[in-house]
Write a structure and sequence with these properties.
This protein is an alpha/beta fold. It has one domain: Rossmann fold (3-Layer(aba) Sandwich). About 45% of the residues lie in helices and about 15% in strands. The protein is built from eight helices and seven strands. It is globular and about 50 Å long.
């Protein structure tokens, strides 16, 4: 009988986390570091990354950072190369970087639409391409966790750019799950509904909106970044070795009804 606790053990692994200073990325970075994972945090600026890494190090964790724009492939490659140089490889990739512009399609510019696609789709594709190559060359498998959304499964007025991008991320995971299965690389999606972040804080502060939205959430509250740590640990560990191409709704039941 397998030691059940051991199949969730991720200690000693190396994780590359994009969007590491956003609400989701920060929670994931701290959660994985506290589970013994070595963390390479990446985002757009050193100024936001440095305090996160210093906090991980102050707690006894092992972490480094490298600023990059996920929409620029050359910068992505430099992050991947630095991760290999500092930590010796990559076992886990979490793509938490993203952007949302919400407005009617008739008022949205093509430049705004493209910005969302480049941040959400191109950025995920770039990191999967670069980090996936490393995982293949290492020959020991790997775990890829893409941040999707309930909006990647369900339509909503004024979300033509964001929903389109997240639907693409969901299908990227399914395609790579098929492409990389033979290498022992698992690719899955965490798809939340609204959770607390700088972008969504207004939803928590607007009492009327908050109460109305809660009618769609069977668990009775919106999500907090910490709500995703358990799922990230699971998808990063041996416990999920027979799971790939899946979209996991961590949404309080939003998409259940």
């Amino acid at each position: 009988m397998t030691d059940v606790s051991s199949i969730f053990d991720v200690s000693g692994k190396v994780a590359l986390i994009t969007g590491a200073t956003g609400s989701f990325g920060r929670a994931v970075s701290l959660g994985l570091a506290r589970a013994g994972v070595k963390v390479m945090a990446t985002g757009r600026t050193d100024e936001t990354l440095k305090p996160l890494v210093e906090k991980i190090q102050a707690e006894g964790g092992d972490a480094a950072y490298k600023a990059a724009d996920p929409a620029v492939y050359e910068e992505v490659v430099k992050v991947v190369d630095d991760t290999k140089l500092i930590f010796g490889g990559i076992d886990i990739l979490v793509t938490a970087a993203g952007l949302s512009i919400v407005k009617p399609i008739t008022e949205m510019t093509e430049e705004e639409f493209d910005r969302v696609q480049r941040a959400n789709v191109h950025g995920s594709w770039h990191f999967c391409k670069a980090a996936g190559q490393v995982m293949i060359e290492q020959g020991r498998g790997g775990k890829v966790i893409l941040l999707g959304s309930a909006r990647g499964e369900l339509g909503l007025a004024n979300y033509s750019a964001y929903s389109t991008s997240k639907g693409a991320v969901h299908l990227l995971a399914k395609n790579l799950g098929c492409e990389w299965g033979g290498y022992g690389i698992n690719v899955n999606v965490i798809a939340p509904t609204v959770f607390r972040s700088n972008l969504t804080q207004w939803m928590f502060d607007d009492d009327a909106f908050y109460k109305n939205f809660l009618k769609r959430i069977p668990i009775g509250r919106l999500g907090e970044p910490e709500d995703f740590i358990g799922t990230v640990i699971y998808l990063s560990s041996k416990a999920s070795d027979f799971m790939t191409g899946a979209v996991i709704a961590v949404d309080g039941g939003y998409t259940a009804g």
